[in-house]
Amino acid sequence: MLLKVVCPGSFDPITNGHLDIIERAAQLFPGVVVGVLENPSKKPLFSLQERVELIQNAVRHLNNVEVECFSGLLIDFARRVGSNLIVKGLRAISDFEIEFQMALNNKRMAPEIETIFMMTKNEYSFLSSSMVKEIVHFGGDVRGLVPEGVETALRKKYGLSAGE
Ligand code: ADP
Questions:
Q1: Which domain holds residue 96?
Q2: What Rg value do the Cα atoms of the chain yield, rounded?
Q3: Do the beta carbons of residue 104 and residue 35 sit within 8 Å?
Q4: The whole model's pTM is what?
Q5: What's the total number of domains in the chain?
Q6: Cβ atoms within 10 A of the Cβ of 31, count?
Q7: Is the CB–ligand 1 distance for residue 66 below 6 Å?
Q8: Is 43 one of the annotated active-site residues of the chain?
């Protein structure tokens, strides 16, 4: 029986695009585990702990969502938390190729685990963690694109004052 689904990502940092997928998954399934990938080779801006805290803060209103970290293979993480369903968001065609590759590789290694995709909301189709970082870094405004607290955390990272 399906108990919970996994929403994986690096979340460096979480955006409203990620949050929309998590919220929709939380409405459709009994439980959601947000899996935060450690992935030091990607040199994240936020530490694992910081990324987890920003997500926990953003999902406080969802009582069937938990946040956990993992390193290594996603299928091992899914098995560890007792899930056989991975839920991911899809933006444009550019996401498709890599997601297709990952889903097929995961299927080969773990045939019992399914990956499903939800289309992004129109207003978030252009949104990514890297865009958000770049905009804040160069003094732009990301209101409405990230959950509360994320813009402040980004400004702090880039040594900008809170309201600049
Ligand atoms: P990014 O691609 O922004 O670095 P992650 O690696 O954290 O993000 O991605 C985790 C998952 O969230 C992926 O399935 C990705 O497609 C999805 N995702 C990221 N941004 C959005 C968005 N704006 N709308 C829908 N899904 C998204």
A1: 5-126
A2: 16
A3: no
A4: 0.94
A5: 1
A6: 18
A7: no
A8: no
CA of 44 to the centre of ligand 1 (A): 15
Does 101 fall in a domain? yes
61: annotated active-site residue:
no
Residue 143 lies in a domain: no
Distance 132 CA to ligand 1 centre (A): 12
Q: How far apart are CA 75 and CA 92, in angstroms?
A: 24
Instruction: Please check whether residue 112 lies inside any domain of the structure.
Output: yes
Taking the C-alpha atoms of residue 46 and residue 68, their distance in angstroms, rounded to an integer, is 16
Q: Which of 21, 43, 70, 142 to mutate to test the pocket of ligand 1 (most atoms within 8 A of CB)?
A: 21
Angle between helices 150-157 and 129-137 (to 10 degrees): 60
ω before 13 within 30° of 0 (cis)? yes
139 falls within a domain: no
CATH number of the domain where residue 100 is located: 3.40.50.620
pLDDT digits (tens, 9 = 90+) for 105-149: 999 999 999 999 999 999 999 999 999 999 999 999 999 999 999
